[in-house]
Amino acid sequence: MYFVRPFFLFLLLAVYLLCVALTFVQPHQIDYSGHLALFEFCILLAVACCCLRLVARRCEAAGARLATALRIPAGLFELAALVIASNVTLRTMDYLSKGTSMPLADDWLSKVGPMLGFSWLGYFDLVRNAPNLQLLMEKAYNLLNSAMLIFLVLLVLSRQHDKVRTFTEAAIICSLVSLVGGALFPAIGAAAFWVPDYANPETWAGYTGMPGVYFVEEIRAVRQLDTPMLVGSKHLTGLVTFPSLHTALAVLMILVARRTWIFWPALAYGIVMIAATPIWGGHYLADLISGTVMATCVVLIIERFPSQRRHPPGKALAAA
């Protein structure tokens, strides 16, 4: 495989089986009908990927260009299947793991910023008075998925094959660690904590809408164990506050891109996106710090134990 080692597929499968097990010990259930259609599509993509790579290997003798032309759509199919499977599995676990009576961690999470001299409300007011900056930060925060896709494409085109795998595997690990952190330390987030009366438009005057509260009602709903929820019957949004996955993914892009020309664009985007995370992600400073530490540690570990299989230079999306 090109984007991840097979171990990570088994890891995702194990997480999904854990999701199924959780439905036996809590009232929330999984909407399998929606998942079944997505997983069937993933299987079709995987089959198409394998067939194209098999044909590509047999065509190598006929010409490298033909083989490469076949590997490119094969890689795209693999990436699409991985994204769909990861999104379904991790989003489902995100919701089911929050269906507990664990106390909210907002009280102690909110204390870290002031201890380090950071005022969330002061920062909120600072950005409130900079409409052009708001637009840039909001776009950067909301376009993270697109930015990661572009980042992967640039790595592939630059023939940084090992870095492609490092980033993909590190993103999966960070997502799983974030789910554990979010389950142990659930929170409604900094925006709802510091601006509890956000239903009043006057409290967020200067913004186009109250930022950082898009997940608040969802996390409150999933914590009401006397009201069963069918997870997957509607769009699932991210519920993790601690650690910040947005911050972690931005740091991953910066770290993985070092010693390549992609580093400077990744750094520029990462700075803006991380700066937007406290407000549009409703994150505490503690979330950003933990997300940064998590991403750094994960990258160092993966680089310490790299994939044994190397991709030959000059073969874009070579089969792994």
Can you tell me about this structure?
This protein is mainly α. 66% of the residues lie in helices and 1% in strands. It has one domain. The protein has 13 helices and 2 strands; from the N terminus they run αβαααααααααβααα. The chain is globular, with a radius of gyration of 21 Å.
List the helices and strands and how they pair.
Elements: H1 6-22, E1 29-30, H2 32-59, H3 64-97, H4 106-115, H5 120-128, H6 131-142, H7 144-157, H8 161-184, H9 190-194, H10 216-222, E2 230-231, H11 245-257, H12 263-280, H13 285-304
Helix pairs in contact: 1-3, 2-3, 3-8, 6-12, 7-11, 8-11, 8-13, 11-12, 11-13
Short structural summary:
This protein is mainly α.
Share in helix: 55-70%
> How many domains is the backbone divided into?
1
Instruction: For the largest sheet, list the strands in their spatial order.
Output: 1-2
Quick one: biggest sheet?
Answer: 2 strands, parallel
Per DSSP, the total helix count is 13
Average pLDDT rating: 89
Distance between the termini: 4 Å
Structural class: mainly alpha
Give me the count of strands.
2
Global outline = globular
Oligomeric status? single chain
